[in-house]
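Example 3.2
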Amino acid sequence: MQLRYSFRVYPGPGQRVALARAFGCARVVFNDGLRARQEAHVAGLPYIKDGDLQKQVITAAKRTEERAWLGEVSSVVLVQSLRDLHAAYRNFFASLTGKRKGPRVAPPRFKSRKDSRQSIRLTANGFSLRANGRLYVAKVGELRVKWSRTLPSTPTSVTVTQDAAGRYWASFVVDTSPDILPEAGTDTGIDLGLSHFAVLADGRKVGSPKFLRRAEKKLKRMQKELSRKAKGSNNRNKACRKVARQHARVADRRRDWQHKLSTQIVRDNQAVFVETLSVKALGRTRLAKSVHDAGWARFVGMLEYKAARHGRTFAKVDRSFPSSQLCSACGFRDGPKPLHIRVWTCPNCGTEHDRDHNAAKNVLCEGRRIVAAGRAETLNASPSAGKTRTPVPAQRVEAGSHREGQPTLAGIPVL
């Protein structure tokens, strides 16, 4: 399987200029390729093949005065930028024909130099890891990397990114074998929510940290200062970076917390089942800010790839499954209930249920049924499932230690 490891990079002043040049050249090549294909489509000409497009917007363009500066950056950067364009078109056509499942994919669009995130990707012939611990990037130089861990194998590619906060990252893709954990004797179902971030089938409740809500007061002050700066001024640019850095801190805290929680859940359970949620629909309600602050989709993605990596079973229960309506004791369906009802009594067997705990137990039962039917795409359910998995990001931190005398889950107090 493939994993992605991200590390902070600290380029020098000259290297920042070289990276900015590489970002710009990659963006221009992408836009030139997209424009050429759009013009060919309008003129009724055949679709330009990948090889012909590369000769047109890279090889031939370097010989012209208008695009001669493309030769100042590594050709690997330019070729990989065109490969991104090819992948975008393939995804668009696959979505039109129905081969690609999920929401409809839009056609590629032009990149802007004002985008808050800029990146380049290099394959093995465009970068190398030096003995002094630095990352060499062609026509940029040796970049200082903050290594938080060792790579399990030689990386096949690296993506150098600059985010909105002005930070630089190097993301390595490595091929590695699954790290199978010892078999655990328990399974769990998870009910995700807002009052409690997660409720497990064994009754444990993990409170919602609400990272964005806690930072709103400081963000409000920073954004007020930003609104008072003149557009186009250096002071406005500085204020923009301050706001972006604060948002980055919020995202980093949320990601770190979710990594610790998901790692501990996967380690403690042989099978993990979670109900799918329509985050896109919930994001249009009055609870939108709280829904996006929770970060359910990223958390479920962490559970999925960690389960595949460590040999655990993972399955998603469709959101149409009435987990909050069924009695987990007798299976009686009591019908839908408004959100303010947190405790209810089954009219059939008289069992009193906590709404979220009952839903988690129902998700566990339905997940076991899905796995028994052979519909779970995990390593445990299908020996060949792990061979076709797409590259996924590796966790940044491992679970913290537990403090004695206090029940915790991944170092987080449970209620």
